[in-house]
Amino acid sequence: MFLIYCPYCGEEREESEFHAKGQAHLARPADPDNSSDEEWGHYLFFRENPRGIHHELWVHAAGCRKFFNVTRHTVSYEILETYPIGEQPRVTANQMEKPA
Amino acid sequence: MTQPNRLAQGGRVNRDRPLSFVFNGETYQGYEGDTLASALLANAVSVVNRSFKYARPRGIVAAGAEEPNAVVQLGASEAAQTPNVRATQQALYDGLVASSTNGWPNVQRDVMGLFGKVAGKMMPPGFYNKTFMAPASMWMTYEKLIRKAAGLGRSPREQDPDRYEHFHRHCDVLVIGAGPAGLVAASVAANSGARVILCDEQEQMGGCLLSTTETLNGKPANQWLSETLDHLAANPDVLLLPRTTANGYHDHNFVTLHERVAEHLGDTAPEGMARSRMHQVRAKRVVLSTGSHERPLVYANNDVPGNFVSGAISSYIHRYGVVPGNQLVVMTANDQGYRCAIDWYDAGRNVVAIVDARPDADGHWVKQAEERGLRILKGQVVFDTKGTKAVQGAWVSAWNAERFALTGEAQLLECDAIASSGGFSPVVHLAAHTGARPVWRDDIQGFVPAAVKGQLPTGGCNGVYPLHQVLADALDTGITAALDCGYEASRFILPEVDDLVESAPLALFEIPHTKATMRAPYQFVDLQNDVTAAAIELATREGFESIEHVKRYTAMGFGTDQGKLGNINGMAITARRLGQTIPETGTTVFRPNYTPVPFGAIAGPHRRELFDPKRYTALHSWHEQRGATFEDVGLWKRPWYYPIGNESMHDAVSRECLAVRNKVGILDASTLGKIDIQGKDAREFLGRVYTNKWEKLGIGKARYGLMCKDDGMVTDDGVTTCLGDQHFLMTTTTGGAAAILEWLELWHQTEWPELEVYFNSVTDHWATITITGPNSRALLREITDIDLDRDKFKFMEWRQGTVAGVPARVYRISFTGELSYEINVQADFAMHVWQTLFEYENKYGLTPYGTETMHVLRAEKGFIIVGQDTDGSVTPEDLGMQWCIGYDKPFSWIGKRALSRPDTSRRDRKQLVGLKPLKDDVVLEEGAQIVLDPNQPIPMRMVGHVTSSYFSPTLNHGFALALLMDGHNRMGEIVFMPMPDGQVHEAEVVGTVFYDSKGDRQNV
To answer: How many CA atoms lie within 13 A of B275 on its CB side?
Structure first.
């Protein structure tokens, strides 16, 4: 069971208070009616499935009800950061590939 | 009653407290402090079980969690039956009753043994897969037979009388294993100020210190042990948990500990005490001081009772004062075997020989053995055992390690016990639970834990074995743990321990035989699952190269012991056959639990009424008094129907339906999800999440809304009312309430944070009472000040007023097709309003109805239930609800774009239709598959299925809703539903509205 830091509550809480909501930073095409079938299909159905760094959307369902982002390693399950909606991750896969 | 193998003195048992116990029907005596295993060995009980596949007699081989054979059924009474208990871990108590889990009619005279001898030869690896393959329908029958023959115990048939507890704990440092390493690490961390939990699976803390002859500070180990434990116990920030197994290591240092609180006291826990307790610990750092397991060697007939791992013999002698035999032969590839022989000799029994596979060894323990004049056969091996139910001798020969072959003449050494030692395997199981693969180290010939954040393996678990090195390693670990948790590490003085020189061990796993492996007598690798070296060789010959495949094919490590003794040997044997190294062959995955955990401990207090929360409406007690039958809807208990006397469900529902259609019915609709939505952009937001239009909905009006996901599929529906220009009340399906609130928050927080809108669940704040039927207006008029005139309070409007003297919001909306009012009042007024309505019960024929009647009435009107008539693959257009789609709304609302995708706009999608069975008395089965031609060969082409089906008492025939391919173009066609019993039902495709298609009845 994960221990997750809610960036709004400012505390680490048990995973059971949260719901995972899939991949983070999914952008809904700005003009849906003029997007192609391919573009819309991509937005609806295509998701990353990386071995390694993954940015995920979570919600503090049994807490503040706020959505936020989590950068998690999908092999070690280590959570490297959590950050509010609208912010960009500081830890990225590209960054991790570089030698420290 | 004598205990022939019990020494007159020594051991940590209390000879003043004899305990009586029963094993396989025989009564024996042991002492307080014994385990069941030590007491059985004291009584010279050699056969404790029959093996899994070949039904061979088996005895105790180990002294701890790794024991593969002595797995027993415990319990004097039916209710106390506990399967899968390792006798080596079960403390003896007075009146203990245990039996072997295998062997019929008993372990001494086993009929299956004969079968095993004959049929065993015919049961190569993959036997089950190969033999029980066809026909597939018979698998369930085979499986029962296999299970019975496997004999791994049984569950009780009566209810467990015991209580189990769950604790949540938090600490800085959790130390698992209270051997020398764990004690030092815990002491250092605790002295530094850290909050420490120290747990150990055994009855007493101390690990190897309980059976060592080494001295600490020049004194017996026991003195340092008790001083250290006293010091820890005196620290209020230290929690000591003996009899506590860390059985699961989960993500982010979440560890589950199973504490056997009363399992050493009796069959059932004493009054007021829990039998066992599950601690769920979150620790900043976890110190793994789990030690190591000694590996036995693989030689022929190494399963005959009387074969032990060598360290187990030392444990039985020093901890329990038990020597399991008189004449010992030791087979070793390291100095550990010498320690065992010395302990045996010092206990006054005869050591026949120490057989050392190494050509020369001159370490401390070797010299000790030589000083005692023990016979040492160097460069030789034990390759076979004489005896069937008990060891009678050991076959010994010189050997050549390079050629992996015996050399010279074999000789038989007569003995009644054989101890073997192939080296040590760190107990890496917990470290592997979170998915990290252990790492092979050539220098120690073993796997150690991989580096994982927050995890600190130390001592034997880290591949460090000599005591003085273990203590130093643990000191470092304790300091690291303290620093990691933000404490300044305190000084700790390690006890003085002699640095005993050990001679280099030999990497030895299996021993050659005079015959080739495939022809030699059984050389067991996994004793619990009867996996032999030959079986592994066969698997590699048949092409299995991955250790994971070999494991599955042979079932190695699949027992309840997870192959603690045999896995490394199995990997080494596989590696040799494949011409690889062990790290190339890899290791397998260990999973929780480390040792079996009773279901009671896992369930803890979460049973009966605490198993799952239940939600009751404010009117629940009234429903109960009225004799309602309840249905679970989500967590809610909802009245299903209200039978009168012995009325059947069918009769009750018919009566309730007719009451609504002809007079007036009343429904507790409080469970509907209710979300209060406010803010200047609330209206805009509704327009984006609903398919239909909201910009013109005036105050006092209500509107039905349909919600899609962005893939265009219907996800929820409900009526939303306009309470103020910036204030709405949304209702959702009962089951969807929480999910829809989260859905709205998701879109607001992540896509449209610029909209000013707020959501709040008010489901529990309001009770909803629906009165529906031709008499509903007259009934409501009796107790309200709201003007109910048909032109002043129209369909799809709401009014504020009082009902039965309390403030109420009344909605004129209908889910039955009849004139209806939904009365919403503060939940704690609900009973008063409900009871006031029932003062007019006889005057208007007021009848309470439940969810079943609600379903019949709504289906007669073609009203869908999201989740029953839809399944996440149904668009509003599939439902024929184009009237509810605002195609020209300015904002591209959720789901709109997907409706024009090629697959979503196909004309022949499955569409919602009505079905009218050709025979009036037929009620189609919900879920029945629809075909167009019932005479086509199987498998038939299925073109849809029935989603809702009822008997209509109003229409006096069965009717159904269904999703049917191209259904909207099939009106009037006949479709078929073939049933499993051979019947074929026929039905006509019709519209979805079966009753009052013009809607006149709700507009009166």
So the answer is: 21
Cβ distance of A32 and B750 shorter than 8 Å: no
Question: Cβ separation of B282 and A3 shorter than 8 Å?
Answer: yes
Instruction: Say what the ipTM of the complex is.
Output: 0.96
Q: Is A62 on the interface with B (CB under 8 A)?
A: no
Chain A residues with CB under 8 Å of B901 CB are 37, 40-41
Question: pLDDT for B945-1001, tens place per residue?
Answer: 999 999 999 999 999 999 999 999 999 999 999 999 999 999 999 999 999 999 999
- Which candidate, A79, A54, A56, A52, places its Cα nearest to that of B254? A79
Choose among B252, B436, B901: nearest Cβ to A37. B901
| Inter-chain contacts counted by CB atoms under 8 A, chains A and B | 62
CATH of B517-591, one of 1.10.10.1100, 3.40.50.2020, 3.40.50.1980, 3.30.70.20: 1.10.10.1100
- For chain B, the domains span 14-132+145-150, 166-292+426-484, 296-422, 517-591, 620-671+765-858, 673-761, 907-996
Residue B891 token pair: 């904002």
Name the residue ranges covered by the structural domains of chain A. Answer: 3-97
Q: Kindly state whether A21 is in contact with chain B, defined as any CB-CB distance less than 8 angstroms.
A: yes
Please tell me the predicted confidence (pLDDT) of residue A100.
Answer: 41
Residue B233: Cβ within 10 Å count: 12
Domain spanning B620-671+765-858, CATH architecture: 2-Layer Sandwich (3.30)
Does residue B879 have a pLDDT over 90? yes
Name the fold adopted by B166-292+426-484. Answer: FAD/NAD(P)-binding domain (3.50.50)
Under CATH, which number does the domain B14-132+145-150 receive? 3.10.20.440
List the single residue in A41, A66, A86 with the smallest CB-CB distance to B901. Answer: A41
Q: CATH for B673-761, among 3.40.50.20, 3.40.930.10, 3.30.70.1400, 3.60.20.20?
A: 3.30.70.1400
Kind plus residue range of the DSSP H or E element containing B560: none
The set of residues, in sequence order, having a beta carbon less than 8 Å from that of B616 and lying 6+ positions away, is B636, B637
The rounded distance, in Å, linking the Cα atoms of B19 and B24 is 17
User: What is the amino acid identity at position B821?
Assistant: Y
Q: Which residues of A touch B892 (CB under 8 A)?
A: 31-33
Report pLDDT digits (tens) over B192-240.
999 999 999 999 999 999 999 999 999 999 999 999 999 999 999 999 9
Task: Please name the residue of chain B whose CA is at the shortest distance from the CA of residue A18.
Answer: B742
Identify from A59, A66, A79 which residue to disrupt to test chain B contact, counting B C-beta atoms within 10 A and taking the largest count: A59
- The DSSP string of B629-653 is EEEEETTEEEEEE---TT--HHHHH
Q: Is B901 close to A67, i.e. CB distance below 8 A?
A: no
How far, in Å, CA of B818 to CA of B1000, rounded?
A: 9
Nearest to B370 by CA among B354, B382, B357: B354
Sign (positive or negative) of CA dihedral B655, B659, B661, B666? negative
Torsion of CA B916, B919, B921, B922, to 10 degrees: -60
Q: What fold, for B296-422?
A: FAD/NAD(P)-binding domain (3.50.50)
Pick from A14, A35, A67: CB nearest B750: A67
Mention every residue, 6+ apart, whose C-beta is less than 8 A from residue B170.
B195, B281, B282, B283
Residues of B in Cβ contact (< 8 Å) with A25: none
Does residue A99 register a pLDDT over 50?
no
> Which of A5, A15, A26, A65 is most worth mutating to test chain B (most B CB atoms within 10 A of its CB)?
A65
Does the CB of A8 have a partner CB in chain B at under 8 Å?
A: no
A86 contacts B753? CB cut-off 8 A: yes
**pTM of the predicted protein model:** 0.90
- A3-97 has CATH 3.30.2270.10 classification: yes
